[in-house]
Amino acid sequence: MAAVNPAYIDSYTRQFRLSPGDTALVIVDVQYASGSRHHGLGKLLAAAGTLDSAAYRFNRIDDLVVPNTQRLAEHFRRVGARVIYVTYGCELPDFSDAPLHMRDWLIATNNTVGQREHEIVDEIKPLSGDLVLNKNTMGAFGSTGIDAHLRSMGIRNVVVTGVSTNNCVGMTAQEASDRQYGVVMVSDATGTCSDEMQEATLKTFRRLWGRVATTAEVIAELQRTP
To answer: How large is the average pLDDT for residues 114-138?
Structure first.
């Protein structure tokens, strides 16, 4: 039997245009805990002799997620659009504020406020005037108050980058869509553990949740829109 492409749903996905005045870049969880070969997850895997098993993840972060997020942040600032950072981790040193299903992971990667692992990677550090919010849930809307911040700023659309595509990035994007924001997930500025996970999440998101675009496409759209 021939494979069927169920694209009939895709035509109902909401269309919208990005404009600097009402669009924010939301950078999710690009931290040393799970985004560096030398800290957190990378350090843990290296000690176990299994760092090669995460080569796809770290290569994608180094080669795509970080440089393309940097390009987007620079362009957003240049056109006067908002840049917002979301971090993931505990705020208490004993990890007692960790959700039960994530506690072991957070402890293993030493991800709590005040530790290097909790910090955003140096290449895309926030600048003065950028909003930084910390969450202890997968999605940013569950534990940060980001919705109130966005509405106060007059934001109607969000462009989402970061890691991991199929966990915190995807959930944050879907939560934003459920709250009536126009949402773009950036295909070449998001990353996870395999092509399969990456493409499955983007394919799912295209079906009614929002749009998927490249870094170059987002920049071009913001340049064309006043």
So the answer is: 97
